[in-house]
Amino acid sequence: MMIEDANTEKAKEKLSVRVKYSQIGFFLLALILLICIVAQVYLAGMAIFEDPVNWGRHRIFVHMFEYISILMFFLGFIGRLPWKMIWGSFGMFALCNIQYYTAHGIAGALHPVLALVLFWVSFTLAWSSYRYYLGVLAASTDTTLLTTQK
C-alpha cells in the first residue's frame, strides 16, 4: 500500500512538472510568435516604403515561424490550458494558412487586415497564457519559496 502511494505521488509530481513546463513553453512560443508577426509586418513595410527586395525576405521569413502555433496547440493539451487558448493557437495556424491565399489577386486587400487579426490573436494568447501561468503559480504551494527569497 505504501509503495503504491509513493508511486502515485511520483506520477503526480511528474505530471505536474510536465504540465508546468508545457505551460511555460506555450507562453514562450506565444511570445516568439508575437515577435515574429511584428517582424513580418515590419518587413512588409520595408518592402513598401524602402526597397522592394524586402518582399523576398517577407516571403521567406514566414516559413521560419508558421508552425509555431501547431506546437502551441499540442503544448496546450499537455499543459491542460483552457480550451480558448488551445483552439486559439489552432486558429492562428488556420489564419497563417489563409494568409497564403490572400497574398495575391482580389483577396489581397484582406492580407493586411488578417495580419492585424494575427497580431491581436497572438498578443491575446501570449497575455492570457502569461496570466494563466501566474495564476497557477500563485495558487501553488511553491510561492512561499518566491516570497522568502527577497
TrEMBL record:
<dbReference type="InterPro" id="IPR046192">
    <property type="entry name" value="DUF6220"/>
</dbReference>
<protein>
    <submittedName>
        <fullName>Uncharacterized protein</fullName>
    </submittedName>
</protein>
<dbReference type="Pfam" id="PF19728">
    <property type="entry name" value="DUF6220"/>
</dbReference>
<feature type="transmembrane region" description="Helical">
    <location>
        <begin position="60"/>
        <end position="78"/>
    </location>
</feature>
<keyword id="KW-0472">Membrane</keyword>
<feature type="transmembrane region" description="Helical">
    <location>
        <begin position="109"/>
        <end position="127"/>
    </location>
</feature>
<keyword id="KW-1133">Transmembrane helix</keyword>
<keyword id="KW-0812">Transmembrane</keyword>
<feature type="transmembrane region" description="Helical">
    <location>
        <begin position="21"/>
        <end position="48"/>
    </location>
</feature>
